[in-house]
Amino acid sequence: xxxxxxxxxxxxxxxxELQRMKRARxxxxxxxxxxKQRRIxxxxxxxxxxxxxxxxxxxxxYDTSSVIxxxxxxxxxxxxxxxxxxxxxxxxxxxxxxxxxxxxQVS
Length: 107
Fold this sequence. Notes:
This protein is an all-alpha fold. The chain contains four helices and no strands.
């Protein structure tokens, strides 16, 4: 009986060490990704969330981030604003709307 307990304890310790190593590797990977990728947090409107959710699917390339990227890149191409892929402005950027001008004014 003591031998079985010793074996089980050894297996538990090994499992715990493997989990610790996996967690450490995952944390390092996440730190590396965050150092390279810019993160933008914002509060999405109900209308925008409905558009995003309608395009999300449980497969590669249809997660929330990918859908948002496609929507923004598509809007950028339709208004001739440069994207990260081209980096070249094809036409003048659209003018600010009055509400955008108010938001950008410095007091």
